[in-house]
Amino acid sequence: MNNRLWPVVLMVVCATIPAFAAAADGGDVFAQNCLACHGSGGEGIENLGANLRDSAFVRDTAAAALVEFLRVGRFPDDPASATGRPMPGFGWLTDGELEAVAAFIKSRSSAP
Ligand code: HEC
Predict the structure, then answer these.
(1) Is the CB of 31 under 6 A from ligand 1?
(2) Where residue 55 sits, what CATH number does that domain have?
(3) Whether 83 contacts 50, CB under 8 Å
(4) Is 15 within the bounds of a domain?
(5) What is the number of domains present in the chain?
């Protein structure tokens, strides 16, 4: 390849990678990070993770606030702790991944 084309190729590659990251699929993020405790359908697993489908918290919390919740989690010493079990924080996920998974669990909510 012509040597002068390399910077152009590099620019295109660098510009494309964040675009892929932003298009995180909420279902994939859930399967990779949440399913083990909350079950494949968000129905909850006894002694591991709460039922998210029936959760009024998921239904009533705005997506942006849910993202903030997911960043820090909820630990047993939190007065809001419902089960006395830890919900880990996911501060290491990207904003795009957190927004996608928050939208995903809200879309699956069937809380009355
Ligand atoms: C290690 C197990 C574990 C993992 C992994 C986990 N959770 Fe949790 N989660 C819990 C537990 C336990 C609770 C209940 C905390 C409590 O008692 O208040 C909970 C609570 C929640 C709540 C609050 C529900 C309510 O009604 O108050 C939401 C929302 C939630 N998790 C979403 C997620 C999402 C999204 C992921 C993946 C990014 C995830 N969790 C990963 C264990 C887990």
Answers:
(1) no
(2) 1.10.760.10
(3) yes
(4) no
(5) 1
Q: What is the pLDDT of residues 4-14, one digit of tens each?
A: 876 777 666 66
Q: pTM for the full model?
A: 0.85
Report the alpha-carbon distance of residue 28 to residue 92 in Å, rounded: 16
pLDDT score of 65: 98
Rounded to the nearest angstrom, the distance between the alpha carbon of 87 and the centre of ligand 1 is: 5
Q: Relative to the CA of 84, which ligand 1 atom is closest?
A: 17
Q: How far does residue 12's CA lie from ligand 1's centre (Å)?
A: 38
Among 25, 28, 35, 38, which is best to mutate for testing ligand 1, by the most ligand atoms less than 8 A from CB?
38
Rounding to the nearest 10 degrees, give the CA dihedral for residues 35, 65, 22, 55: 30
